[in-house]
């Protein structure tokens, strides 16, 4: 993803991650993608996070990564 999708983005660019229609969010994927984005960019916005697996994974990610996402 970094090589193709976000390579030309500015550090303060808003990145919106939309979880609409996502059934399951695994901690490993979230850590590899969301944590890496949040470490590099200042303005990450997560939307449609009402699914219980998404909530749980994001809580775990916040707890262990220390990121404010």
Could you explain the architecture of this structure?
- The protein has 2 helices and 2 strands, in the order βαβα.
- It has 69 residues and is an alpha+beta fold.
- It has one domain (14-65).
- The longest helix is centred in the middle third of the chain and has 14 residues, at 27-40.
- 4% of the residues are buried.
- The model has no long low-confidence stretch (mean pLDDT 90).
Largest sheet: 2 strands, parallel
Strand order in the sheet with the most strands = 1-2
Distance between the termini: 19 Å
Structural domain count: 1
Beta content comes to 5-15%
**Helix coverage percent of residues?**
40-55%
Q: Which spans have pLDDT < 50 for at least 5 consecutive residues? A: none
Order of helices and strands: EHEH
How many beta-strand runs?
A: 2
- Number of DSSP helices? 2
Helix-strand makeup class: alpha+beta
Give a short summary of the structure.
The chain contains 2 helices and 2 strands; from the N terminus they run βαβα. With about 70 residues, it is an alpha+beta fold. A two-stranded parallel sheet has the order 1-2.
């Amino acid at each position: 993803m970094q090589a193709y999708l976000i390579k030309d983005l500015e550090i303060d660019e808003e990145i919106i991650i939309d979880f609409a229609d996502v059934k399951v969010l695994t901690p490993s994927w979230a850590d590899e993608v969301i944590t890496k984005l949040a470490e590099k960019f200042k303005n990450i916005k997560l939307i449609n996070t009402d699914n219980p697996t998404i909530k749980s994974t994001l809580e775990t990610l916040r707890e262990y990564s220390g990121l404010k996402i």
